[in-house]
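Format notes (please read before filing issues)

Several people have asked whether sequences and structure tokens are stored in separate files. They are not. Every record keeps both together, in the order shown below: the sequence lines, then the token lines. Line labels are part of the format and must not be stripped during preprocessing.
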Amino acid sequence: MSRNHAPLFTLDGTGQVVRWSLGAERLFGRRDEEAVGRSVPELLSTGPPDGRWLVGRVPGGSGEPEWGVWRAGEDMGDLDEAVLDAVFDQSAVGLHVLDRDLRAVRVNPVAVGMRGVAREEIIGRPVVEVYATEGVTGVESMLREVLETGRPVRNVLVRFHPRLDPQHEHVFSTAVHRLEDGSGQPLGVVVTAVDVTDRERAQARLRLLHDVHERIGSSLDVERTARELVEVTVPGFADSVLVALTDAVLRGQAPDLVTEEGAPLLRCAATGEAGDSAPVTEVGTVLLPGLFGDELPKAPTLLPTGDPHGDGPVGLRLVAPLAVRGQIFGVVAFERRSTLEPFGPDDLALADGIVARTATCLENALRFTREHIVMTALQSWPLRQERTTQRAIEVAQRHRPSGRGGGSWFDVIPLPGARVALVVGQVHHAGLSAVATMSRLRTAVHSLTTLDLDPHELLARLHATTRRLAGEQGSAPRPGEPTASCTFAVWDPAEGRLDVARAGTSLFAVVRPDGSVDPEPVAEGPLLGADGPPFASATHTLPAGSTLCLASAVRDGEAGPSTEQLVDALRHPDHGPEQMADAVQHLLAPDRVLLVARTRLLPPDELKEWDVPPAPSAVAQARARAAELVADWGVPVDPFDVKLVVSELVTNALRYGAAPITLRLIRSDRALICEVVDSAPTAPHLRHAKAVDEGGRGLHICATMAEGWGVRYADDTKTVWAEVALAP
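Then the structure lines:
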């Protein structure tokens, strides 16, 4: 009778049970907690099972003698070995038995089959060393922790490429348990491994499809949707992705129908590479049809890829069409090189789900883009010049929309004092987002002109607006964030003065009545939304009949007119603004806007000004002169209102301003404009005087009697103005 195996139960020196095995539990029908601490007579009160029993001394954990009880008549050691052999030989789970030095002492055939190596290459070697050659790292600390603490670990995923299938990554769910002898001392560990590759791949596909539905189609923009497809699939699904859209879709037109007669013109809309390598194909490049096979596929298809050095095929390219209801939007090419395993049948099904979602988003984006571009074009072009600006300039305007929403705009805005603002701008990317940004910048310009800012100060505030728009679209600077060019010019027909500031490279030229052309009357400045202020500015005094030519900036990849071409088109002062606009328009690409403005000066019967001496008596003189002029001009206004407004403005300048002081009256189609110019930088403000105050009501009276009032600043003067509305 061999006693190499553990006893059924163990007794201490007093005859009480101190350890109770599973075999004893099955044999006597009592659990461990029912047996430990009780004596043998109590346990065997009904008599022991049939058979002979052997008692022998076993080493005790505390040094006290302990006695083990075995059942004679059968070789339990042989039974244990038979059970162990059956588990190892017939189990579908990979088993590794390791000793205290983590050397493999036994493995089953499933474990060996996982690696495709002979048993002799594993037995006796450290398991960490064996699997390090397969790319498995970081497991030694886990094994030693289980060996030292006895706490098992379960469901640890291990990924590597086994020798039997080196092209595919396999995933195993592993568990580690400690092996102990009868006294609880560690003998080693047993590692179980189950191949869960199919499960993990299925879960990875589900996660990718979830990301596709969550992240693709976040905006109604065709180009951004294409970029989102790249961002979602690189590097999880492919090492390289190229999204090609048809030229019609990129121009905002209806997609072509799928035909058997060859592929439509395709352009690269988005591309991405795993790692830091730059994409080989640039966005906007026309792509050859052969890149996607002899003809565009109707379903996801695998095509062989050639080695760039001419050594033959090295992999497969997955090509999938972007199509919805017979309309072709484009095609996507996925490639895997070294970081991922080759494409398989499951990848074809996954690619089909990816492109189906993307094509639906492209359809929605294209429909919205087309409708929005048409709506914007109908609302914005052409502009109708207001009568109030025709007294200062004569304007011709041009715009050739391409349907892509170029983001160009121009405006002719009347300002106080018969002045006119000319604005030309260009958002520096195309598409729906450019149209939206352009609309918001136009609104901002109209709002800022009410502040009577100098042109360079207005651009500085418009720059802040552009930066805020960039922050709303994304916190980090990126190529798609809004930047814009803008030229803002103010023409004063009373003084013949042109103030201009420029952000970016918008076209701006001045043609004098003698035919001389200045192609750059103001230097280029930084882009709105990029580097920011200070912006280039200049001031010019121009005679009547000068011509201003403004056009939006050139977009990336486009060519603008040369200086010689521009000068040749403009050096004809005898041509009117419309003829000049026709000559310049042929030099500009579609989506660029053009303004040509011929300057005028106010005639003497619409402008009169006087110097105001710094004396209290000057108020009455100014009031009387204003009343006489209103009568001479025959302006339909209330003379009392005019005298009251002039009196208060002059009094305010004498009291709070500085000499020299000038009073100016300007007649327009809708109002009589009263302006007082002085040399003090102090800003007037509206006060609400108390009932007992003798003064402090001047600007309040002007605000009540006049249609509007305000103040604007020059380099060394300020102008306070008020408009008295004409009678209907």
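For reference, the curators noted about this record: The chain has a mean pLDDT of 82. The chain has 19 helices and 31 strands.
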